[in-house]
Amino acid sequence: MIKNFIISGSGGQGVLSVGSILANIFMLNDLFVSYCPCYGAEMRGGAVNCEINMSDSELLCVQNDKVDFVIALNQTSFDKFISKVKENGTIIVNSSLAKINKTRDDIKYIFAPLTQEAMKLGNIKITNSIALGVLSKILGNFTLDNVKLAYEKILKNKAELIQKNIEAYLVGYNYIQEKDCIQCQ
User: Which residue ranges form the domains of the chain, and what is each CATH number?
Assistant: First the structure.
């Protein structure tokens, strides 16, 4: 089983951090992982994305033409990566910063107001963790203990942020069942 992911947004949205957390969660589940960050010279505000590949056997390729899942945290990311989603793949879109726009009929869409939900928690910088929670609900195979361990490892120098990010993760995880987020099939 191989699954491929792209997480994309603007510099400052925590794209690389949450990608690293996702990769660590997979490793804690004894899976093989590759993590490839990509960002321009203008860091904050510039385009940022990362690709994560996960498998239950050794990985031979780290970049893919098509991926199973895309998280698009803004409109630019949606526009750029919608074409990279495999047929029957899924795109999670931050509808707070991107138009609800179903441009393909061969993929699944999840439009959720991620930034708006983060603002309810008092910090838009945790939008990325809400998105990760939504993704993990779809995947259905993460334990909360491994999620906490991954956050603790990646945010070890920012211990004050760990609990707030885990809270945001849980908001995302529970969002699909508690809210009527727009899901287009």
Answer: 2-184 (3.40.920.10)
